[in-house]
Amino acid sequence: MRVRSGVFAAWASAWLAGEAAYDDVVARVTGDDEPHRVIGAPLGLRGGDRSACRTDHDVVSVAPASLARQPGAGLASEVPLGWVLPVLRARSPDGVRAVLPVPGDPRGLPGPGQFTAAALAAGEAVLGRGIGLVPQVTEHGSELGSRTTCVLWTAYEVGEPAPDPITVAEAEHELTGATRDAASALTALDVASWRPEVADQLARVRRGVTPDLPPGHDGRAVRLLAQADRLAAVLDLARADAPGSSVTGAEARAREDALRPLGSALRRARVAAYNAVPSRHR
User: What is the dihedral of CA 266, 269, 275, 278, to 10 degrees?
Assistant: First the structure.
């Protein structure tokens, strides 16, 4: 799964540091999606066109008016993704970071509020100084035909988040231990007998492509993210039931208990990797 908030945080922070071009940020965050749109951002301008992905039946939530309103301007409607970058430069010039919360693990989020609720529902968000962005991803089309992915980011006023320091080295250590423990637990559960491809994927976990991160991103963080992305694919496979299998409820619960720590370590590894500061800026 592509973590759009992580890509956004890494590339936007590189742009804020003068190490990435504006057009590159928009292109990398968008990827193969339809052009991303933003609502609720304090742009002081109105978006003139409707998103290509919206229909008359779409319901778009609007961030608090205090965020979207500027002196002498009306409430901003949907605008292109790139329009939010100057806002981040004005509000959070030192960079933004990705947060990947789940119910029961809200680390990195501010206190209760609209942004926190939206981030928990989405499982990801971008957080800067006084501003947060949450993506809403919508898929259109048939699974057997062409599909279109539309992304609408909602901007929120946010308070000061709780500190959530984690270094790449710490996340790397946690992920290594969680991977080892999960492999041992799955072996004990005899998962490989009904999902032989899981064992094969675990054996090939060190192979893969380099993540699409900005030039100059911390090299160790790049390697950690590549490992986390490969392990995430293995985790999805291990959690799925084999076609035609007859896994019992007890077996499914035991499997989920064995994999839960790995899922947590994967989120922490991605957070550390996307938010890593290049060594020359430390």
Answer: -150
Q: What number of H helices and E strands is found in the chain?
A: 9, 6
pTM, two decimal places: 0.80
Q: Under 8 Å CB-to-CB from 252, ≥6 apart: which residues?
A: 241
Tell me the Cα Rg of the chain.
Answer: 20
Strand-by-strand arrangement of the 37-39 sheet: 79-80, 37-39, 147-157, 131-141, 125-127, 97-99
Task: Say yes or no to pLDDT of 47 above 70.
Answer: no
- In order, the DSSP letters of 43-109 are -SS---S--TT--TT-------HHHH--TT------EEGGGGHHHHHHH-TT--EEE--BTTB-TT-
Q: What is the pLDDT of residues 118-134, one digit of tens each?
A: 999 999 999 999 999 99
Mean pLDDT on 40-44? 58
